[in-house]
Predict the structure.
Amino acid sequence: MSRHARPGLPALVIAMAFAAGTSSSALAQTSRAEDVLTKKARAIHEKVITLDTHIDFSPGDLAGERNYSQRLETQFNLPKMIDGGLDALFFSIYVGQTREAQNPDAFQAAGYERAYKAAIEKFDAVHRFTHEIAPDKIELALNAADVRRIKTQGKKIALMGVENGYPIGEEIARVKEFYDRGARYLSLTHNGHNQLADSHTGERDGWKWNGLSPLGKQAIAEMNRLGIMVDVSHASKESMMQTAGLSKAPIIASHSAARALCDISRNMDDEQLLALKKTGGVIQVVAYSSFIRTTRPDSPERAAALTALRKEFGLPEPTDPSQRARFQSALTQLSADKRAQYEKKLVDIDHEHPGDPPATIKDFVDHIDYAVKLIGIDHVGISSDFDGGGGVIGWNDASETFNVTLELVRRGYTETKIEKLWGANLLRVMDDVQRIAAELQK
Ligand SMILES: [Zn+2]
């Protein structure tokens, strides 16, 4: 029965036991077993470094007047991070991909410059947050040793990864500039091809390079030389496989899931996972509902009702995953009154035209199990995509982070294994990447 109970809800376990007509002594046993499990998970959760490799933000939410040092309605912020016992995160220096169809100068100097400025604004926001807004609570880490040191000092740990190589333009020197600003991974692409590589979106739109461009290959060599992890989340399969063959250091997928369980182009198939393992790298399984469980599309009635609701409250349409952060941000800008009205109407729509239920934490951990079975415990990690996605019942904001550890303990993962999943693997890769860079620079 505990298999079907939601983590962290002993009251529900008890209610379900009663409903099933369980005797009171069996009930007491169930609840004692649940207590033991929770206590064990709690001890592990506090001891290991819990690291999430992908959290989105808008510069205003991070370093504006209302910012992440406060309990905002965002999925991630410092109070929620503390509540959930999440130790470390990579802030995503995300820049959306402009397509030539939208903007003819997307791949000319002016387009690159706009993307570059957007990236710099995000770098600056992270520096401002960690150095001026909350330096007593969170510190910027530049390597794995920093992460371990800051953990022992009882502070939270911030790292940075650049999501999309678009803002480097055609200047390889900018890879070093981003490294110097603190970036420790760089995703080759986002949604849509760029000057470095094909994106997974080519499965729908067709290909530009059939993998990596000549400039993309140069960028990978430069990342290897500097000690910045090459991230293949969002890249096409061909780009990813070429990267695995080319990179002199282990590569990562900062936020992807297993395609065998959820067949979408953003996820990685078995051949890709095995190639990633061969580099010594790690897949950070992402708790993004629509990457975890294939859901039926909304009925026309539901879709129309949701569109009308968003229109009524002046909210953007979150049609593309990259628009989710913009949507979340617009939502948090509604007044408390308006927000309550919106939520109420949303509940009415859910009641009248129910959608397919979102993925749960069990679906999420199924992806971890799958990847561990295929490529081994040393090559799997964890990421949330908070404020850019998320939506998994049970781990839908940073305050619920403990539920992940609890579910892993429930499935029999030992402390050593949980430590690897929650960050030790990623930190090993960071160490390897920086050691290889030092050798290459000799
Ligand atoms: Zn992403």
